[in-house]
Amino acid sequence: MAAFLQINTNRSREAQALAFHTMKVKEADVLCISEPNHIPDHLGWVGSTDRKCALFFQQNQYVLRTGSGAGYAWADLKDIRIYSCYISPNCTFNEFDVFLYRLFGSVRGATSEVIVAGDFNAHSPAWGSHKTDPRGDALLEFAESLNLVLLNDGKVPTFPRANSFLDLTLVTKGIMRKIGSWGVLEDESLSDHQYVFFNTRMPVSSVQTEKNGWSWRKLDTDRLDKFIAEAITPLSMTAEASSTVLSELLRNACNAKRFIQMGEEAMPLVVTNHCGTPEGMLTPAYEQGARTGWSTRCDFEANNREEAKASTGNTQHVPCAGALPEPMEGGQACSSPKREIGDTFGPDLWD
Questions:
Q1: pLDDT tens, residue by residue, 128-178
Q2: What is the CATH number of domain 2-200?
Q3: What is the C-alpha separation between 144 and 314, in angstroms, rounded?
Q4: What is the distance, to the nearest Å, from the Cα of residue 91 to the centroid of all Cα atoms in its chain?
């Protein structure tokens, strides 16, 4: 069984630190964060290209591929692709539409069951809101086009201050039948949003947990001190919470060597890849203006790109709106796992 914790930390340092503690207490495998305070360049993290949302994994998860775009980050696990999303309430509807357009192309390229979790700042009675807005209508169209099912029951608001239901969880029908539970937690989050916790009977890892073991003779204390100094810790916590966070921090630091030595067979993460399309570069398929439906627009996109390749002879990359998964946006298997994992995490603490 796989467990997921979802939260908008509202860029709060304390809320993000508490989210790690809650993840441990609830025994969650994956943490989906909107508006993080910080996205470390450490093993176990996947962040969006605009750094507004991220995924964090427990150490024993087997992540096959990762990818990201503006407003979303994703990772392929054993039989699941999980997304963390965020779009600001201050952006225009056109910007929101472009965000959904690009997210649609990424989700459509998945070959496994999909979970889309995030703060979309959209309103609809379908998930408990007392009103509807154009964003809500667009999001419902997005979900319908991808055959996604909403897990929110509309009973408990995820943004209590405004009695709003902003944090949503969408899944494919294959996962819907295997959801064990979904709910908004009453636990303190130190954010203006509440935690969302859900689990599924589908496993996220096919790798057996290895027994921890470290050699103190190889420990580089200077690098260990630097790792701890760069880690996010709250300004104030209870003694019990502080001991838990410190224990987890030390275990993560000591396990760095183990991840690098595992190599290709049990590689937890690969380097995040994403589409390099400049913001605002849209092809004629999108600029038609009228909402012609997600599938139709993406088919137009594919035809335009094929025609461009044929006319230019360029078979490597044709700039696009990012709606269809590019080789870079879709993520790639790591061809040199030891080198790339080392680059992602930083210096080896045990050399």
A1: 999 999 999 999 999 999 999 999 999 999 999 999 999 999 999 999 989
A2: 3.60.10.10
A3: 35
A4: 20
For the stretch 252-277, pLDDT in tens is 666 554 433 333 333 333 333 333 33
Question: Dihedral (C-alpha) 341, 347, 350, 351: value to the nearest 10 degrees?
Answer: 100
CA angle centred on 55, ends 129 and 171, rounded to 5°: 50
- Tokens describing residue 23: 């993840």
In contact, 83 and 116? CB cutoff 8 Å: yes
Residue 179 to residues 2, 174, 188, Cα–Cα distance (Å): 10, 9, 24
- The residues spanned by each domain of the chain are 2-200
CA distance 307 to 299: 13
Largest CA distance in the chain: 66
Closest CA to 219 of 90, 349, 69, 123: 349
Q: Supply 280's token pair.
A: 């605002």
By CB atoms closer than 10 A (0-12, 13-18, 19+), residue 186 is: exposed
pLDDT interval class at 325 (50, 70, 90)? very low
> What is the value of pTM for the model shown?
0.63
